[in-house]
Write a structure and sequence with these properties.
The complex is a heterodimer. Chain A is an alpha/beta fold. Chain A has helices at 15-24, 38-41, 69-79, 89-96, 234-243, 254-270; strands at 3-8, 28-33, 46-49, 84-87, 112-114, 117-118, 121-122, 126-135, 152-158, 162-164, 176-180, 201-205, 211-214. In chain A, a hairpin with a 2-residue loop joins strand 6 (117-118) and strand 7 (121-122). Chain A is globular, with a radius of gyration of 17 Å. The two termini of chain A are 16 Å apart. By secondary structure, chain B is of the alpha+beta class. In chain B, 32% of the residues lie in helices and 25% in strands. Chain B is built from 23 helices and 28 strands. Chain B has a 7-stranded mixed sheet. A 7-stranded mixed sheet of chain B has the order 23-25-21-26-24-27-28, with helices on both faces. Chain B is globular. Chain B starts with a helix and ends in a 5-residue tail after the last helix. The chains are: A alpha/beta, B alpha+beta. At the A-B interface, helix 1 and strand 8 of A face helix 7, helix 9 and strand 15 of B.
């Protein structure tokens, strides 16, 4: 079974459910601490940086964690093309470490995540459900099986989720996830985009397509039971139906973890 | 310091000498109302039912524990603690509210449990005519304080409530509760294990380095807030980030303790800091303890011994372990989890040892600064309080009820009232999904449902409730809060298994306030005794807190505010339902008789009342309705269910149609039977339910309700047209759901 490491930073707080979701997707998932040795680190086939508030979000979210030795190991894993997913605080760490979008290929910081805004007003922490869609899904191992018109309900829980992207950073070859309404219409305006993010971007994949940084939480939408019944999506109807039958049913976002697993297995075949 | 001259004389008699400065501060903390319950203990003992066949650990330690379900050979339990942090939140709202959450979760972690969620009950003042902006400022910052703690810690906010009343203008209420999950075999107690009689045991302090924050906090919360006692230094400062790391290290520690069957005692540091935790953990095991204050990790040099001993620096635990295990504990926190690298001087430190001699000894710079027979500190102190009763109007006489305006106008505007609007503008700041266990989210139904045990279909449901009936009838206020909580867990498909209470009242030295307190306790006790779900047993109260001296600067008390948490079990989460109706071809059945009792109700201000009578809780009627609604949901005959409480039937029906977000799927055609008074039917707040059932099952379900001897009548049917049409004997009208949705969500940003 392919092995996946969920990297626990001091202040991570989503590591357990993230490991669980990876387990549902067929990974042998471990939670490993930020102090893990280099040799132990490289035994894994794929990595997830979970949500949380590492180092208390001092300076900027993710800024301190991005300087840890374990991030150096992670960059080596990226060089080997291993799948790496950063969720929420993990997304912020990947941005601060230069792992996304990594257009220059040398892990320089190219984008940042700033405090949520609604128009010109600070908007504070937001806990809500949103919808996302993938743009250029074919350029990433995470979404190569996904149609661009598929809409995924997914929750956000963050105070600093606004991507800031300088004009010279050209994402036109990268896969991105964008916030949409329930019908898949993109808008960078509130409430469709809950945090004022540039171009309504919820997540950015690196240029190579093996590292994905996503502010919303796929691990909280990996099982059907996690979907609220009020949302305007057929997934709510699916949940109503599924509640009547025994067994756990797959939610909309487990597909990201499954894509990581497929990539690992295909990589093994190539090797 | 709040010790009276009588207290000091008593201390001198007990010690046979004058106390040292450090000793005085210890007594000040330990004899405070907050730590000693000196005014209230006898009343609580006399009335409240605390026993039950499923209680794994009753009142007495940091949390109460109730058995929840068996799964794969384990007896899973829920640990719960319920606290107030009212005065700190009034003075420093962000820190006060945040440390309220921080304190209550420590109570649960220290039992060996993992916290699965928190709830909050927030009572704010009303900024009349914009003249008291501080009231709104406090409300806003308290919300930030709760989210500042719970979100980084990684525990979901599972619900709560927000109430507004002018009596809270100078004394807001912030009540918080935390729930944890653990195997009964893994309960860790807050006393020194017996084996310490023959084996050496060390005392280890874990967490943030000690500073001067929160010094005098316990006695601060045990007095009235006035200009002199607006003691900012007495409020603690929160660090949920550090707490998360400590908790992760504790989890690792619990695994080792369990695997190797190492006897330990664990206690959190809350009120009274080191002095309280170390004396209580030793005394509870029948031991003494010696603590060397110079071994305590401090944040800055030069702290006086009483500050080190009594400050309420947050994010600390005290663990008592066999000497042979000490180094491993120190290494776990200091090396494996790198705590000293995360915060200046944080970590684990060996600060003392357990003694067979029952003496509490503190050493500072080589000198003994306190040496007290330990039972004196932790002994029962009692204060005699007397009640001054006031007349309470009750009785079934119909009262003349005259509305100031038309029924249609009331209905159109009702959902925009502050009591009725969606509180999403508050709870959007709270993470409600971390841990990934949430199945029914806050706002979707009367209570949340989560599946805390992996691979197990048993759901946990919980509700936190209070009301504004206390100034009319303090007994009803207590009874009604319990009854509402029970209805809430039943409405989602659960049944109640335990209760906690947090009793917020005025100054107990005043007879009027003490009367209100005793009445509230009686109401809670009667409700728990009458409404249990295990035959022949009361619903047990397994944890609680009392907060007194809540009053304005002029000395008028907040309205009596008992806050109740009801914990419920959903035998199979797949049968849980929400309040929103989504199908046409359904009828809505009103369950529970309506009475014209409008004292303290939301509609009250629209009415001219001769005499205010609070909505009475009729236990027999409640019990019959609870049982039959529970059974109907288990039989999967009900599509949606919502209880009737604040705002009455009209609010219930609007919310069932609008759902959490005001996104209605179907409309309603309401028909009020000719023999029902429209105003009483729509706005009475007596307990009840509305269930939505397929039209095809209507006759069958009404039949079951009649057989169960509950008052039930079909009140509405669903329509494709997205409006609410209402007809009654004197007329009819129609309101578009978009109008109601706009009113309901008018406060949401």
């Amino acid at each position: 079974m392919p092995r996946l490491a969920v990297i626990q930073f001091p202040g991570s707080n989503c590591e357990y459910e993230t490991a669980r979701a990876a387990g549902y997707a067929g990974f042998d998932a471990d939670i490993v601490r930020w102090t893990i040795s280099e040799a132990d680190f490289h035994q894994y086939d794929a990595y997830v940086l979970p949500g949380g508030f590492s180092y208390q979000d001092r300076i900027r979210s993710g800024a301190i964690s991005a300087k840890l030795p374990v991030i150096q190991f992670l960059k080596e894993a990226d060089n080997l093309g291993k799948p790496i997913l950063g969720i929420c605080n993990g997304c912020q760490i990947l941005a601060e470490a230069g792992l996304i979008p990594n257009l220059g290929g040398t892990h320089q910081v190219e984008v940042a995540l700033a405090r949520n805004m609604r128009g010109d007003t600070p908007h504070g922490f937001v806990c809500d459900w949103t919808y996302i869609r993938f743009v250029r899904p074919e350029n990433s191992l995470f979404s190569s099986f996904i149609d661009t018109d598929m809409v995924f309900p997914i929750p956000v829980n963050h105070g600093e989720g606004r991507f800031v992207i300088p004009p010279q950073v050209d994402l036109s070859q990268c896969t991105v996830a964008v916030y949409t309404d329930e019908f898949g219409t993109v808008s960078d305006k509130y409430p469709v985009t809950p945090n004022g993010s540039a171009q309504g971007i919820a997540g950015i994949c690196n240029h190579k397509g093996n590292v994905f940084a996503l502010m919303p939480h796929p691990e909280r939408a990996s099982l059907l039971r996690q979907i609220p019944l009020w949302i305007g999506s057929y997934w709510a109807e699916e949940k109503r139906r599924a509640l009547k039958v025994p067994g756990d049913f797959e939610g909309p976002c487990l597909t990201l973890f499954k894509a990581m697993k497929s990539a690992v297995l295909m990589g093994a075949q190539h090797a | 310091m709040k010790l009276s001259s009588n207290d000091i004389a008593q201390i001198e008699t007990l010690l046979g000498r004058k106390p040292t400065q450090v000793e005085l501060y210890i007594f000040d903390t330990m004899w405070s109302e907050h730590c000693s319950y000196k005014s209230t203990k006898s009343t609580l003992k006399k009335y409240l039912p605390t026993k039950g066949s499923e209680v794994a650990l009753g009142i007495g330690e940091d949390s109460g524990i109730i058995r929840f379900t068996k799964h794969q050979g384990k007896q899973y339990c829920i640990a719960i603690s319920h606290e107030s942090h009212n005065h700190p939140s009034q003075v420093l709202p962000v820190e006060g509210a945040a440390t309220g959450v921080g304190g209550v979760v420590r109570d649960v972690y220290c039992m060996g449990a993992d916290v699965v969620g928190v709830l909050n009950s927030l009572h704010f003042g009303i900024n009349h005519d914009g003249k008291q902006p501080i009231v709104d400022e406090i409300a806003k910052r308290v919300v930030h304080g709760v989210s500042d703690y719970a979100n980084p810690l990684g525990v979901p906010v599972l619900g709560g409530e927000t109430l507004y009343h002018e009596s809270y203008n100078e004394n807001c209420l912030v009540n918080v509760a935390a729930l944890g999950l653990l195997d009964e075999a893994d309960i860790i107690h807050s006393f020194v294990p017996k084996i310490a009689k023959t084996e050496p045991f060390d005392v280890i302090l874990i967490g943030k380095s000690t500073d001067a924050t929160g010094f005098g906090g316990a006695s601060f919360s045990s007095a009235t807030l006035d200009a002199q006692t607006q003691n900012i230094g007495a409020v603690q400062v929160h660090d949920p980030f550090l707490k998360r790391v400590i908790v992760e290290a504790l989890k690792e520690l619990f695994i080792r303790i369990k695997d190797r069957k190492i006897p330990v005692g664990l206690k959190d540091l809350g009120a009274g800091g080191i002095s309280c935790a170390t004396s209580e953990i030793a005394a509870a095991g029948g031991f003494g303890v010696t603590v060397d204050l110079d071994k305590v990790n401090v944040a800055l040099e030069g702290l006086s011994p009483e500050v080190i001993a009594c400050s309420e620096t947050q994010e600390r635990f005290c663990i008592v372990v066999p000497k042979a295990f000490t180094q491993e504990v120190l290494d776990l926190f200091n090396l494996e989890f790198e705590m000293p690298k995360l915060y200046h001087n944080a970590g684990a430190a060996l600060i003392g040892h357990i003694t067979n001699e029952p003496t509490y000894t503190l050493i500072h710079q080589g000198n003994v600064v306190a040496t007290i027979p330990i039972n004196i500190i932790t002994t029962d102190v009692a204060a005699e309080r007397t009640e001054t009763p006031r007349p309470i109007f009750r009785g079934d006489l119909p009262l003349p009820v005259v509305p100031f305006t038309t029924l249609q106008k009331i209905c159109e505007e009702f959902m925009a009232k502050q009591a009725n609007v969606s509180k999403r503008y508050i709870y959007r700041y709270f993470d409600n999904a971390v841990r990934g266990d949430t199945v029914i989210y806050p706002g979707e139904a009367d209570a949340v449902v989560l599946t805390p045990i992996e691979g197990c279909d048993v759901g946990l449901t919980v509700s936190m409730d209070s009301n504004l009936y206390g100034h009319i009838d303090p007994y009803v206020s207590g009874a009604s809060a319990v009854a509402e909580g029970i209805r809430n867990v039943i409405s989602v498909g659960g049944h109640p298994i335990a209760v906690t209470d947090c009793l917020n009242y005025g100054n107990p030295e005043k007879g009027e306030a003490f009367f209100e307190f005793v009445e509230g306790v009686k109401g809670i006790a009667d409700a728990c005794n009458q409404l249990g779900f295990i035959e022949g047993e009361a619903l047990p109260i397994i944890s609680g807190n009392v907060s007194l001296y809540n009053e304005s600067k002029k000395g008028s008390a907040v309205i009596p505010s008992p806050v109740i948490v009801v914990i419920g079990k959903v035998d199979n989460y797949r049968k849980s339902i929400t309040m929103q109706i989504v199908n046409t071809d359904h009828v809505l059945i009103l369950i529970g008789k309506r009475y014209p009792e409008f004292g303290g109700t939301v509609i009250g201000t629209h009415l001219k009342l001769e005499r205010a009578v609070a909505p009475q809780v009729r236990f027999d009627e409640e019990k019959r309705a609870n049982q039959v609604v529970f059974q109907l949901i288990q039989d999967q005959l009900v599509s949606a269910c919502h209880d009737i409480s604040g705002g009455g039937l009209w609010t219930t029906l609007c919310e069932m149609s609008l759902g959490e977000r005001g996104l209605a799927k179907v409309g309603l055609k309401i028909t009020i039977p000719n023999d029902h008074a429209p105003l009483t039917t729509l706005f009475s707040e007596n307990g009840g339910y509305v269930v939505a059932v397929p039209k095809a099952n209507e006759a069958l379900i009404l039949e079951r309700l009649y057989r169960a001897q509950v008052e039930a009548v079909t009140i509405a049917e669903t329509t494709q047209d997205l409006s609410v049409k209402l007809s009654h004997a004197q007329g009819n009208f129609s309101i578009p759901l978009t109008t109601l949705a706009a009113a309901y969500t008018s406060k949401c940003e």
